[in-house]
Amino acid sequence: MKNKRKSIFKGMILSTLAVLALTACNSQGKSNTSKSSGSSTKDSKVIKIAQIGPFSGNAASFGNWDNQGIMLVVDEVNKNGGIHGKKIEVIKIDDQANPTVAVNAAQKVVNQNIVAAFATPLSTGTLATLQVFDQAKIPQLTAGQDTSITTKGSKYIFRYNANSAAYTKTAADYIVNKLGKKKIAIITNSGAYGKGERDSFTKALKEFGVEPIADEVVTPDAKDFTAQLTNIKAKNPEVLYMGTENIQMGLITKQAIALGLKAQRAGGSAADPIFVKTAGVENAEGTIFTTQYIPDADEKTKEFNEAVKAKYGIEGEFHIAKAYDGAMMLVEALKNAYPNLDGETVAKELRKLNYSGITGDYKFDETGEGTDKAQMAVIKDGKATLLQ
Amino acid sequence: MNGTVLIQSLIGGLGIGSIYALVAIGYSLVYRTMGLANFAHGNILMVGAYIGTVFYVSMHTNFIIAIIISSILIGILGMVMERILRPLGKMDLIYMMLGTLGIGIVLQNLAIIIWGTDGIAVQYPIKNEPWVIGNISISPYTLVIICASATVVLALQFFLHKTKLGLAMRSSAQEKEMSLVLGMNVNLMNALTLGLGSVLAAIAGVMVGPVFYVSPDMSSSVGIIGFAAAILGGFGSIPGAIIGGLTFGVLQTMVATQVSEWSQVIAFVIFVFVLIIKPSGIVGERVVDKI
Description:
The structure holds 2 protein chains of 2 kinds. Helices cover about 45% and strands about 20% of the residues of chain A. Chain A contains 13 helices and 14 strands. In chain A, strands 7-6-8-9-10-13-14 form a 7-stranded mixed beta sheet, sandwiched between helices. In chain A, strands 2-1-3-4-5 form a 5-stranded parallel beta sheet, with helices on both faces. In chain A, strands 11-12 form a two-stranded antiparallel ribbon. Chain B is an all-alpha fold. Chain B has a single domain (about 5-290), classed as ABC transporter involved in vitamin B12 uptake, BtuC (Orthogonal Bundle), CATH 1.10.3470. In chain B, strand 1 and strand 2 (about 135-140) form a beta hairpin. Chain B is globular. Chain B: Pfam families: BPD_transp_2. Chain B: This is Branched-chain amino acid ABC transporter permease.
């Protein structure tokens, strides 16, 4: 009897341990404030902006690209004496691509005298933090593509990117009208980006009178797509549209080819260098996708490419380019708003801008949309090349 | 579900299922010998996957050699782990279990410090042109995984049943006191078992790399399902671990062809039901119940 009780007790401890093990595995990322403020007097010598985004985990590349684009501008401005003599300081916080962590980070930074925030490069984190920045009246800049970001009524959101609808409409138009393909299969994930892709791509297809023949949804952390791709293959599609982030898109491509799925592969702006690396150059070849940035397209992008290479030792890239344009616009607005560096004035100045950058021409409307232009590109020898 | 989808998902499920089976055998071996649920097993798998991948991707070693190097290093790691856990085991099994949890967290964070959180994409080691039979296409690499796993399992069975060392390990697992009396080094046997279990995890980790993606969260994604598979089959039983692993793989894939987002939920609900009906797992034996 006593023994039995002891074994029940041990069983309880065992199951507690199992739960602990599960949570321990998930809490691997750390949040670190790299340059948190010491003194925050009103007439401080610095202008503080925040950048919240993933710097650890599967989505870490998005946070890092965003940061590289922003720092390219900020370092240049600071080197040339700052904004009317005031240097810009970037408070960088890791949200681990987790919306809860992002909200905490946002609540923390709005009390640190910041004038604007880049939050976050992912739609999920942006949606989660919308209200915090809107209430604090601090301009929030995002590269998130989910269409609903600008429909929630925030007066302080600014998107330095086209939204999913603009991207997917360009893609749907090209696939249906230019390539003449009607048998289209969709695979997306249930995260905010994937959901946005699924909704807007299906809607865009409908406008051209096409219903997708397969519509599979996976979880954002899925790595095995055998089942979904098997279903899709059974329908024999001409085009496979992948609406997931870069790594998943690469894995889907790889596994689709391994399953003998011969459809033309297409996707959104997630077809970046990480996608090519994950899929393998050979497998990524010929994937068509939408983007706002093609390296070496004109003088401006060439110049940008050189700057990125000199500073970071890597090729200029779409996400870095977007963040660069976003930061350029913010700097412009800050210069114009000076000396009234409060959120309201900065937001007003952002709306007044007519900015022509490397990812397109921006003019923010009341909802915070800056542009609706996207281009079709294709992966050729592992690199993005303009199609239209 | 039509026939083509059924067969296709069965093949895919067996592929990923054999990976789960290898992981599950590692859990069961250690549990059977030491009565220990090794919570560092998933982390060991992840570290093994990284070591193999670094050799294969960055140093361009042959894939099989990368697996062997990773297995040797991870085998040593497993044996070192036994030495660390030994004093804890003298107090109580629970302390030992906490010890594995601690080692797991240390490994997880070391991996993040060394390799970062970005993960590494791994290319297939063979030319992975699918073989097409009628409407079904088979990815050669899936077959490689299934065959390699089967070979590993057969070699393991041969080792445990036909070699002197294997017999010694089994006897120390079954009758610890008697083995001690007979002059057997039980600590060494425990170390060998942990080492052997870890080698299986390393093999599984490196093999699954090209299909998935080698990243720190492998330890939870593959490790936890391996653990569940071991329990489903019957914790402590090797045939049980194989059946549990394959069942989990096939179940997950088949459910996913019907209701993709629900595949994990439904697979684990079935898992719970099986355990309610048969608490000792599909082929579980009461004999191994040591705790």
